[in-house]
From TrEMBL:
TM segment ranges: 12-37, 43-67, 79-100, 106-131, 143-166, 172-194, 222-244, 256-276, 288-307, 313-331, 352-375, 387-405
Membrane topology per record: Multi-pass membrane protein
Intracellular or extracellular location(s): Cell membrane
Organism: Populibacterium corticicola
Name of the featured protein: MFS transporter
Keywords of this entry: Cell membrane, Membrane, Transmembrane, Transmembrane helix, Transport
Residues covered by the Major facilitator superfamily (MFS) profile domain: 11-409
Main subcellular localisation: membrane
Length: 420
């Protein structure tokens, strides 16, 4: 039996890692999209209070990636992945328990919401480390595993809400409880199939004590500059959740149009991610990132143009903005993830992945706050102003990123990666 499990771990490592992202997203999206409905319905919270709780949950995940990354360097990524899943089991269990009482317990519900986010902050960096190690053993020039990870994750993101909607008739508490049981089964499966060692360290003699760690990542000025520049990618992609609904408010059939935008982005991800990743590999990291940030800047310009008609934003312009944001992210995110291990001085690079995601989370938090303040304060004839101002950020990143990459001694940026 032990021989069979060892063989499965070695021969199925990449399918297991990619499949894990699908399974994880199915469970996540079956529960989390319905948290807002529960906060406003069962607990009677205002829109602002609901938004605050959801913002805290998002920061507990995206903003705390650096913790998961640092722990992945200090310990085996496998252990951190399993810990992240166990944390999410606890979070979903608290969500269910908060509603299975005589009176719904808001404090318990918020604790469960935060734990679901922190579970992702532990899980994703550990998975990224294992993906990076598997990528290092592949032939360069092929579609990166991070692009495949985006596709398999999107499959889960598409299936999850459907599953959750089908279960919602039994109540959100039951959906959360089933989600907790589902993640417990995933933990058991991965405990059998995930590799127990990181491979590279076994051959090089590196230990957790020799990991670059967060301090090394923060001292790498070129890397810190790179993650600051790349943070505009997540800010732009997050506009699917802020700019699109905001710009379509007051338009005819708003809810259906917003749903169509998200369906379009899902279809775009499934159909275009791999071709765009292949093209990005041919362009090389520097050119691909420059183009990705430029597309995001154009997306903000389209959003500004759409805002000129506040009460009935031109739907085609909103779709155009969403498309530019989506394509920019499909090119920029896998390329940046693929680039991270080249900055790290050793094979352990969880802190580097975590820092990349944390900067993105901070950019979303501050950028959305800035957009909201400006949108609320400008007169109707200047509604285009906040989107145009934000467009300067990805435009600046597009200009600066080639120079930053060129300055790093371990980063070959001048020549495109040749196809195998």
């Amino acid at each position: 039996m032990r021989i069979i499990i060892t063989y499965a771990r070695q021969s199925l490592q990449i399918p297991v890692l990619l499949g894990t992202q699908t399974l994880f997203n199915i469970g996540f999206y079956a529960v989390v999209p319905f948290i807002a409905l529960t906060l406003s319905g069962d607990f009677g919270l205002t829109t602002a209070a609901t938004g605050l709780v959801l913002g805290i949950r998002a920061f507990a995940q995206q903003g705390l990636f650096v913790i998961g990354g640092t722990l992945s360097d200090r310990f085996n990524p496998r252990a951190i992945i399993l810990t992240g899943i166990a944390t999410r089991v606890g979070g979903f269990s608290l969500l269910a328990a908060s509603l299975w009482q005589d009176e719904p317990d808001l404090a318990l519900f918020i604790c469960g919401t935060v734990l679901t986010g922190f579970g992702g902050a532990l899980f994703s960096p550990g998975l990224n480390v294992l993906i990076a190690q598997a990528e290092a053993r592949r032939v360069r020039g092929r579609i990166t595993l991070f692009a495949w990870l985006s596709v398999t994750g999107e499959i889960g993101a598409a299936i999850g809400p459907v599953v959750g909607a089908l279960l919602l008739g039994a109540g959100f508490a039951m959906v959360a409880a089933i989600g907790a049981a589902y993640f417990a089964l995933i933990a058991l499966l991965l405990a059998l199939l995930l590799p127990r060692t990181t491979g590279e360290h076994a051959s090089t003699g590196e230990t957790a004590d020799s990991a670059p760690g967060l301090r090394t990542a923060l001292r790498d000025k070129a890397f810190v500059t790179f993650v600051a520049l790349h943070s505009v990618d997540l800010l732009a992609y997050n506009q699917l959740y802020l700019a699109v609904p905001l710009l379509l408010t007051g338009a005819s059939n708003t809810e259906r149009t917003v749903a169509l935008v998200f369906a379009w982005i899902s279809a775009l991800t499934l159909c275009a991610q791999l071709p765009l990743a292949r093209w990005s590999a041919l362009l090389g990291s520097s050119r691909a990132l420059r183009l990705a940030y430029s597309l995001s800047a154009v997306g903000f310009v389209c959003a500004g143009l759409a805002s000129l008609s506040v009460e009935n934003a031109p739907v085609l312009l909103v779709f155009a903005a969403a498309t530019f944001f989506g394509v920019g992210h499909l090119m920029g995110n896998p390329t940046a993830l693929h680039a991270v291990p080249r900055f790290a001085p050793t094979a352990q690079n969880g802190s580097y992945f975590g820092l990349l995601a944390t900067f993105g989370g901070i950019a979303v938090l501050l950028g959305n706050l800035l957009i909201g303040v400006v949108v609320d304060s400008v007169p109707p004839e200047l509604t285009w102003l906040p989107w145009t101002l934000i467009a300067c950020l990805p435009a600046a990143s597009a200009i600066a990123v080639p120079h930053v990459l060129r300055s790093h001694p371990r980063f070959p940026v001048l020549a495109p990666e040749k196809s195998a």
